[in-house]
Design goal:
By secondary structure, the chain is of the alpha/beta class. The protein is about 40% helix and about 20% strand.
Length: about 300
């Protein structure tokens, strides 16, 4: 009897192991099928982009990178934008809108032509607010409403990072009296910008909600999109890929958009840092640990949490 029970137990364990193996094989097949669908969809989107692109520099960039990992997040970002733009089309916006994209950001590793942030005519301009190598206090409301003006910029030392350089040394030299327009930058080289999702504990989106309750919504033709993903996803994405995905979504919508990036632009390059003299010529550059805040007169009563 004991021998029969032992054989039964062994048989049961073998069957269980076989079932687990079949389950693992099925999951692998599903994953491979999903990757294949993602790859096919990415190729289709890049083909559509190439067919509709009018800029030679961007065309070259698309063709040189069409099989690289640079566009690995293109399908995910396309689906992200599609959901938001479909909802906004139901609202009383005109055909020309301002989209404020809210994310964590950084610059890193290499340069790209500024025109790669405007890959298709559906994006008319991309506006950056922080100088290169500068972090911000996350003034979503000022950017979303258009209330923030260049004269509202205040630069100081990011003391939370242990910096001891006086505030006056953090003032950028020859700071332009306008924002950094990628349309005006054209084929000029800019640092590669990466963006990553907001986190529940960072307070950025919560602070924006408090501001809208106190001072009102941004208004017609102004759309605010937080970079929030489900679950624990927090990988960074090249901002150029984010803009390519948006430009493709806008192709099938009634919108043309000016995009306003609300994100830090601190240098997080893994190796050699960017040429600061070159970046000063393109727009402006700040020393390490500089933060850009806004002056209280931007609103009658500032709601910015620093």
């Amino acid at each position: 009897m004991n021998n029969c029970e032992t054989v039964t137990d062994i048989t049961r364990r073998l069957l269980q192991a076989h079932l687990e193996l079949l389950k693992a094989q099925l999951n692998l097949q599903l994953l491979l099928a999903k990757c294949k669908r993602q790859s096919d969809e990415r190729d289709r989107l890049i083909k559509v982009a190439i067919e509709n692109c009018k800029n030679f520099t961007v065309l070259q960039w698309l063709r040189e990178n069409d099989e690289s990992d640079n566009f690995s997040k293109l399908v995910d970002m396309f689906n992200f934008w599609k959901k938001h733009i479909d909802e906004e089309e139901k609202k009383n916006h005109s055909d020309n809108v301002h989209i404020t994209f809210v994310a964590h950001g950084a610059i890193r590793d290499f340069m790209i032509p500024a025109s790669c942030l405007l890959p298709l005519p559906t994006i008319t301009d991309v506006v950056l607010y922080a100088p290169w190598n500068c972090v911000t206090c996350g003034d979503v409301y000022g950017i979303a409403t258009g209330k923030i003006k260049p004269q509202h910029r205040v630069f100081c030392c990011r003391k939370a990072k242990g910096c001891t350089i006086p505030d006056e040394m953090h003032q950028p030299v020859k700071l332009p009296d306008h924002w950094n327009s990628m349309k005006n930058a054209g084929g000029c080289k800019i640092p590669n910008i990466t963006v990553s999702p907001l986190r529940p504990d960072d307070g950025v989106w919560e602070n924006y909600g408090l501001c809208t309750k106190k001072h009102g919504q941004p208004g017609r033709n102004r759309i605010v999109i937080p970079f929030i993903l489900p679950g624990e996803e927090s990988e960074s994405v090249q901002f150029s890929v984010v803009m390519l995905a948006l430009s493709l979504v806008l192709l099938s919508s009634r919108f043309k958009a000016t995009v306003h990036l609300c994100a830090c632009l601190g240098d997080q390059s893994a190796g050699q840092k960017f040429d600061k003299e070159q970046l000063k010529k393109q727009y402006a550059y700040t020393i390490d640990n500089t933060i850009m805040t806004v002056s209280p007169d931007m609103l009658n009563e500032s709601c910015i949490v620093l």
